[in-house]
Fold this protein.
Amino acid sequence: MESAFTIRDLDVYYGEKQALFGVNMDIAAKSVTAMIGPSGCGKSTFLRCFNRMNDLIPVFRVRGDLRHRGQDLYARDSDAIEIRRRIGMVFQKPNPFPKSIHENIAYGLKINGVKGRQTLDAIVEKSLRKAGLWEEVHERLFASALSLSGGQQQRLCIARCIAVEPEVILFDEPCSALDPIATGKIEELIMELKSDYTVVIVTHNMQQAARVSDTTAFFYIGKLIEFDTTSKIFTNPSQKLTEEYITGRFG
């Protein structure tokens, strides 16, 4: 299977504090990879390395090799803005812009130079359909995005991400603020998205990881303890620490 990301000997620091230690991993393209582990174990730090979001923290520094389709994401000539276009992100809490539903989707397109009302309208519709939201909002596209429910807002944020045609979508605990019905819709959507995108998700919900992912990585105190197919991680893990976490003995 083709790799979307190759990670070799990745160390991450916040000032003098080391947050990740020697992570090695290959992430397959057009699959769902889940990151699990207790709070503070480095999952979100690792996820944010993929689209250079940690760069916004002044004391952040990274050593090692992290490549997307062969491109060194931390090379001096790498453009962080272009990387974030190709590697989109959906955050823990829905964060729609205080604009209309239509304008939320069109905003990134306009920044990237897409013009013409018909073109924008077509991409807005396509993105909302892919995010499973079109039928619910097509009659009120110019209403405020803030009038949507929490689950709808999160799907809107996914549609906004899809609109600029990324190759990868990162999800940082996308369902933690949602009720079970909205969570179910997001999980269904994540499983559908892997036919077109590489998906990486951080989740505290182990059942969610088991339901949506093809491979799972277990992190503990900044170290990658185990990375394997999700079925193996949850039924026959190789490491005792993984088994103890999966069975609820800590975390």
